[in-house]
Amino acid sequence: MDLFDTHTHLSMRDFERDLLDVLSRAKSVGVKKFLAVGFNFRSSGESVALSQKFPQIYASVGIHPHDAKIVKEGDYSFLESLLSSKKVVAWGEIGLDYFRDLSPRDLQKAVFRAQIQLSKKFRLPLIIHDRDAHQDILRILREEKADEVGGVMHCFSASWEEARQALNMNFYISFAGNLTYPSSRSVQEAAKKIPSDRILVETDCPYLKPFPDRKGRNEPQFVKVILEFLAGLRGEKVEDLALRCWENAHSLFFQGSRQGLV
Ligand code: NI
Q1: Other CB atoms closer than 10 Å to residue 194's CB: what's the count?
Q2: Which one of 39, 137, 205, 216 is separated from 129 by 20 to 30 angstroms, measured CA to CA?
Q3: Which of 89, 142, 149, 143 is nearest to 121 (CA)?
């Protein structure tokens, strides 16, 4: 079985001391590829650096809504410079976070819009972070014509109606550890209905360790736990769903307009 953990933060300090062990534990359950996702200037640069060191790691660049308040005019040029690496396969994670509200919402929206425009300029699929902001996320994606690049609704936390709207804008739906939580009923209901050619799995490690052992650091080996849970929900064979997710990740990240670069 080949698995692709499509959302990790392997560049974080949490993995500094034992990254090689983390990668080998992942490999032992079939995780062969990883996307190291940037969420600010520093982590974007570090994710790209990791992707240059390890052939199985790919990278994305972007500024998370938490950091919207410290973005300055012209700061995006650093992220643009990182795109010279052929292993950058997406723009994100970007979006809106009304749960923690660490930046004023007007600034979150402005930074979100600016980066959608950049993703279109460079023809990169988007990685979307949506925390309690479903309606504004979908409206802005529509207004900015994000369907031209598509992308993924990472760590999906909404319901089928929001999923349906995202699917209509060429987005994939990615499930993380929160899918396995007993409180995630509407996410689980949505997961049963996502077309099999638009579904992805991820860990979002070091966050969101799957149920039932939610304490401590999450790591890519647990993407298999999420996949097995998802297959159970959908009444599919684990091996079949693994293959679909693997193919979907390749379609999204490696067969876009930058095809031939990777
Ligand atoms: Ni993330």
Answers
A1: 22
A2: 216
A3: 149
pLDDT tens for residues 139-188?
A: 999 999 999 999 999 999 999 999 999 999 999 999 999 999 999 999 99
> What is the rounded CA–CA span in Å between residue 242 and residue 236?
10
94: CA distance to ligand 1 center in Å? Answer: 9
Kindly give the distance from the C-alpha atom of residue 197 to the centroid of ligand 1, in angstroms, as a whole number. Answer: 22
Separation of 250 CA from ligand 1 center, angstroms? 19
Q: pLDDT band for position 256 (50/70/90)?
A: low
Q: What domains sit in the chain, N to C, each tagged with a CATH number?
A: 3-253 (3.20.20.140)
Please tell me the distance between residue 260's alpha carbon and the centre of ligand 1 in angstroms.
27
- The Cα 10–Cα 162 span in angstroms is 29
Q: How far apart are CA 163 and CA 161, in angstroms?
A: 5
Ligand 1: centre distance to CA 129 (Å):
7
How far is it, in rounded angstroms, from Cα 149 to Cα 130?
A: 18
